[in-house]
Amino acid sequence: MAKKDKKNKDAKKAAKQAKAEKKASKGESKLKKQSKKAGDDIEDDIDIDALLEQLAAEQEQFEAVHVTNIDKPTKRTNGTIVAAPMAQRRELFLFGGEVANSQGIVHFYNDLNVYSPDSDTWRRYISKNSPLARSSHSMCFHPSGIMVLHGGEFSSPKQSTFHHYSDTWILDVETKEWAKVDEKRCPSGRSGARMTVWKNYVILSGGFRDLGTHTTYLNDLWLFDVMNYKWTQVEFPQTMSMPDPRSGHSLICYNDELILYGGYTKVKAGKGLQKGKVLTDTWTLKMKSDIKSLRWERKRKQGWQPTPRVGCSMQLHKGRGYLFGGVYDLDETEETLSSEFYNTLLSYNCETNRWFNSKLKARKKKEVFKKEKVNRDKELEDILNEILKNANLNDDDDDEESESLKTDTDLESKAASDEEEEKKKEYPVRNQMPHERFNALTCVMDDTFYIYGGIWENGEVECNLDSFYTIDLSKLDGCTVLWEDLSEIYAATADSEDEFDDDDDEDDEDDDEEEPTDVKLIAEDEEEEEEEEEEDATPTIPDERPWLPHPKAFESLRNFYVRTCAEFLTWVIDQNRDTRGKGLKTKAFELAETRWWERREAVQMEEEELEESGVEAVIEKDFSKVTKRR
């Protein structure tokens, strides 16, 4: 009986298990049918490692950077060109921009074009992980080896609708790889903002948003920490004096002082109308680690002032902000707009708060590197070593020998580099500035000022200029033309001349007809700027350190240092008691270089006066060589 009960239990247990298996099989079949119906076929036998390898390959392909050698970038406007003077490689980075065809259809770019001045080559870098196509964005280089990009705009092909980006991207200047910053708190979407660098921060200021019905201009200030990729907005007291909202302004940082100049904004000019306002004010902000204590201060105008203009921004170099081109609307009405375009190169001295107009001079014949020049450098080195020896500040003998060997090697390499420069492709050099334009892309690397593209208008016709120039800021001896295409300007001026001839023929017929009056736009809330007592623009520039040697007219930095190195080294020894040998020589040259740039404008004014009187160079007698009278 017990055996029978046991068999019944086993049978029930087996039947229950079979029923459960049947139910599970039925459920699995139902799940597969549902998955198949939804287009998601689930398989349990997928190799997870193979799947991960596939995803990694797709991600690698997505982040891959494709490089192409090109003759030059495609024509564009409203992009950004930024210099990256890294120790290993010095390059210019051109990103984004837009171009309009003859039908007015606008195309936006998101390719990265990199120019190497050393090899005179362009390369295009394209990646699926690049920022979306845009123009009028802001981009800045940080010495840590990254580019920071923010904002910009995109529009429909006929520019009937606009979109302003609010994203931030990081570009590794070595690998040319992009990475998007995942940060919720960041500057709002905008175009025309400006960026600069201070310590481990990238500073962003201003910009505008086009909302279709009206345009909103901004005056907020943001700091981007390159250490943790975080944005922080600077909050100012409501009672504090602030710069007006603006875009397209200048923003540079020199000696822990943020300098903001000019820009463009719009104010009300009647019901439903806005009038453009060109700003010419200068503001400074002393940067501190405690951002809550930052305060804006308006600078008083001193000496000569440039005429108002927009479409140009300063580029910092040796304590100066260099600004090229621009445009100013002379008369703005509801139907007409007349403008004046510029092609001048202006410099703003950050320390003295003064403006200067930089003029080009005729280029002198290149001095050939000869053996006599090597001997002079050897004599210079002996003089410096003798001064250090008398002051018991020489390096060890081994270091002295290695320094001497290094000097000889440097001279030989300099001679070789000069020969290589002679073999490089030569470009035409003009003794005049490029054609007038605004919104030209500019940057500075070493002592070279780069000008790329720009816009020029003839009435309602907009001409996009395809050109690339360089100017040596230390010499100002001409403008080098790497390429130039002004065909749009020639076509526009030719068409306007034909229209002008047609208008002359119809003048007699139109004399009897009354023309509607064109109402000039007047800003309702445009405040009159405070009248500032400007100092007389005197030709003399005060010297804050008259005890230091002064550069002479037509004297290069190298010749100035050769002539005054002993004095600078003696001065440096008195000020740096803990430094020896090579360190003192380095400090002496740095002081000489600072002094040379410090008095640059004063020397240029002296050179202009001499050139007006017919003097093109000053040759001094070498009293070390005794000559007999015959």
TrEMBL record:
Regions of biased composition (Basic and acidic residues) lie at 7-31, 403-431
Pfam family membership, one: Kelch_KLHDC2_KLHL20_DRC7
Quote the biased-composition stretches of kind Acidic residues, using this chain's numbering. Answer: 495-516, 524-537
Q: Where is the DUF4110 domain?
A: 543-625
What the entry lists under Gene3D superfamilies is as follows: Kelch-type beta propeller (2.120.10.80)
Region of interest (Disordered), ranges:
1-40, 392-431, 492-548
Checking InterPro entries in the record gives: DUF4110, Kelch-typ_b-propeller, Kelch_domain_protein
Q: What protein name is recorded for this chain?
A: Kel3 protein
Task: Give the organism, scientific name.
Answer: Pichia kluyveri
Organism taxonomic ancestry: Eukaryota, Fungi, Dikarya, Ascomycota, Saccharomycotina
